[in-house]
User: What shape does this take?
Amino acid sequence: MESQKPVIVIVGHGDEAGDSISVGNDDITIETLISTLKEAGLKNEATIKLNSCYSGCFKSKVDYSVDQIKHMFKSGILISAIGSVQGSLMENFSTQLFKNIPSFNGLVQGYIGAITQAPQKNVLKMNGQLMKRGNASEITGNDGFVLLKKEEVRVSMSRKDFS
Assistant: This one.
């Protein structure tokens, strides 16, 4: 029987600055997160999910209409159109993680948009179907917002992205 790779989910409030996660009134820096993971015995093959708003993209609003966002999402090009990881928490965290823990060869994942922590109604899936309720990422366009299935707006980085 093959063992599963560990998954670590870091939950907090994120913003476009990409340098920390907030929990309550406290900002937890990237350095503190990495130090804590290291002390806890981070497994080299783990997947780390940064479950916070804008963790995988630093933009909070995009210059597209809701209809354009939906079309790009269903076409599979939304992340490449608006999901630049440059300057995001995921990129900044990954850069420091791979530098400070050279043996780490797992994945770091983040999300574009504002992540909802409670299931939402009428969440759009990439195949065009609406979920009655589901975990979502809210993407704000120039004429409103749309709720997209959270796991379908996930972006990832690995050590090879820094080679």
In short: The mean pLDDT is 89. The first helix runs from residue 30 to 39. The longest strand covers residues 136-141. The radius of gyration is 16 Å.
